[in-house]
Specification:
Elements lengths: L14 H12 L6 H15 L1 H10 L3 E7 L1 H9 L4 E11 L5 H7 E11 L2 H6 L6
Parallel strand pairs: 1-2, 2-3
Length: 130
């Protein structure tokens, strides 16, 4: 399974803002609208990097990509443990994980970014998502 490297977002902009972006694209400052939006987001993230870093540490978030396999969850259950998952980035729960195993192994799930899991896993964990 190929891990995705991005998540698609949809946003609404006012017509004047959209026109200004198109003007900058037309004049060659950006290659397209998406390039402008990605650049603007990166600039804002850079501006607030210190605050984000402190929050990541305070909330004990794992940064980046974290995959939870069936074996990971079975090992937690066998050890009598329940996982408190906290990810900033992408959390993946493997396709071969059953809804019952997910409920038995995961006490709480906080994902700032994206969660990729089967719909039945998301439904089974809905009351544990924070």
């Amino acid at each position: 399974m190929k891990t995705p490297d991005s998540e698609k977002l949809t946003l609404n902009l006012g017509f004047v803002d959209l026109g200004r972006i198109d003007l900058l694209v037309r004049d060659g400052f950006y290659s397209n609208r998406s390039d402008f939006i990605r650049t603007a987001i990166r600039n804002q993230l850079s501006t607030h990097a210190e605050v984000a870093e402190k929050a990541t540490t305070r909330l004990a978030l794992e940064l980046g990509l974290r995959t939870f396999t069936r074996q990971d969850l079975e090992a937690a259950v066998a050890a009598g443990e329940r996982l408190e998952i906290r990810v900033l980035g992408l959390a993946i729960i493997a396709n071969d994980v059953s809804a019952k195993l997910a409920r038995d192994a995961i006490a709480s799930l906080t994902v700032l970014g994206a969660l990729h899991a089967a719909p039945e896993i998301k439904a089974a964990l809905a009351d544990r998502l924070t």
